[in-house]
Amino acid sequence: MTPKDQPDRDEIFDKVQALFGLPQVHNASSAFDPETCTQIRPLKDAVFMAIDIEACETDQSKITEVGIAMLDTRVTRRISPGEGAAAWTATILARHYITKDFIELENTKYVKGGEPGTKQDFAYGTSQVISIGKLKNWFRYDLGHPPYPDGDVKERRPIVLVGHGMQNDLKYLEAMKIRLESDANVVEKIDTQDLCSYRSLPASLEAMLSQLGIDTTASHNAGNDAARTLEALVKMVFLNAYYPKMLHDALKTTLNPPITAEDLP
């Protein structure tokens, strides 16, 4: 990613904070208490959905795992975020699908920043082991029918799709013939890598999570990675709204990494 391609972090934060019903930095009042506040009405009444798709490292056509995590702004608008937005992140729902067809495949050669062989270590519920055909159908259904407390089950809610370095995930979705605009009502795509990286040096998921104090145990499990990506987004937008210096200090290693000659455009 060259400097001219670097996304505008402030613009992304303003957008996501509006979607969560959080004030933009320049509108936040020093008298506003984020621990007890009643939220501004979230823009678009959206459901945030984070995805992580794992494929065989030697054959990218073989999808081995899918993780999906969901957070409904109809839920978060009813409760104060709490310290570090912990009350909001506690409402994240996560699912983890393992492809039965490729269950024996483990990524051990190129895995970085986490332990290989974590497929069975989903920390947010029970993994579902299903065929590749069923996985595609279930994943498509989840994207189009997120769980939420109100409304008709046929209601078509706006979806904010979240990922970390999500270009590969989008390619996998395309390969699975999942169309985001028709199978799901995706109105925004947010890449958390854009919020914690410097120019052409994209931060890894593990680096971002570690700096935010989020667990990285059993990383590269698609369900864990999806849930923690969404947790990281919530935590970053919360801190950016009320404690921007704290966020900058937490991410200073990835926002201001040592630059070598090879990194320069």
UniProtKB/TrEMBL annotation:
Domain Gfd2/YDR514C-like C-terminal: 47-236
Protein name: Gfd2/YDR514C-like C-terminal domain-containing protein
MF GO annotations: nucleic acid binding
Pfam families for this protein: DEDDh_C
One GO CC term, this protein: nucleus
Domain of life from the UniProt record: Eukaryota
SUPFAM superfamilies associated with the record: Ribonuclease H-like
Gene3D superfamilies in the record: Ribonuclease H-like superfamily/Ribonuclease H (3.30.420.10)
